[in-house]
Amino acid sequence: MEGEDAMSQVRNEYRGHAFMVEALLEDGLWRGRFHMLAHEDKIVHAAANEAGLYRWVSMDDGWATRNEAENYATEAAHAVIDRLPHPMANHDS
User: Fold this and answer.
1) Model confidence pLDDT, tens digit, residues 44-61
2) Domain at 22, CATH number
C-alpha cells in the first residue's frame, strides 16, 4: 500500500446512467462508495433523487485492494441502476 493514493474516483456510465465510484483507504481497508450524477431526464432524476442516490452510497465491507473496493461499488451501482427507469424508455420514438 505504500506509495498508493488513499483515494480514487472514477466516472462510469451504465445503461445511459452516469455515476461516480470512489475508493477510500480507511484504517488499512479500502471502502467503496458510489453516487449517481444528475440526469436530464426528469423521471430518472426524480427516481434517483427519491432513492437518495445523488448522495454517496457507502458499501459496508472493507476490501484489501482499491480495485476490489471500486469493483464492489460499481456492481452495487449497476444493481441500483437496473431498478431505475431507463432514460430511453421515457421518450417517444
Assistant:
1) 888 888 888 888 888 777
2) 3.30.160
